[in-house]
Amino acid sequence: MKLFFFGLIRGGIPLLIMSGIALLLNFQSKSWKAKGTFCSALIILIVGASSIIYDIAQWNLLKQSIIHFLLMLVTIYPVLLFSCWFPVHNFKDGLVVFCYFLFVGLILWSLFFTLAKIFNW
């Protein structure tokens, strides 16, 4: 329960701030910017909340990483598809977005893994 609360804090605070910005943009008739900001807020919420996976000491790094990847696949990938950041008109376009998803995810996972090892997080 404690980890769940920490996950909500890690992801919820940025969600509230970014959602407020999105709402202001929407009131200013900048709906396309508001949508992008809100999609960013959703991504931050999901990534922040799911970071608790790496705090579960009983799971090894492989299990944590697989569960994290699957969670990102069923949450972040659909947000990317519906965000309008990428043209998605057919299966091939969805596959291109999936490749971006994999590439950026691998880079970020490697970066944070390296930082965690360096700073002993």
Overview of the structural elements:
It is a single chain. With 121 residues, this protein is mainly α. It has one domain (2-119). Helices cover 80% and strands 0% of the residues. The protein contains 4 helices and no strands. The protein has helices at 2-27, 31-50, 61-82, 91-119. It starts with a helix and ends with a helix. 10% of the residues are buried. The mean pLDDT is 92.
Draw up the topology in text.
Elements: H1 2-27, H2 31-50, H3 61-82, H4 91-119
Helix pairs in contact: 1-2, 2-3, 3-4
End-to-end distance: 21 Å
List the secondary-structure elements in sequence, H or E: HHHH
The helicity comes to over 70%
State the assembly state of the protein chains. single chain
Count of discrete domains: 1
Shape: globular
Helices, by number, come to 4
> Mean pLDDT across all residues, rounded?
92
Poorly predicted runs are none
Strand content: under 5%
Radius of gyration over all CA atoms, rounded? 16 Å
Structural class: mainly alpha
Biggest sheet architecture: none
Q: What's the count of strands?
A: 0
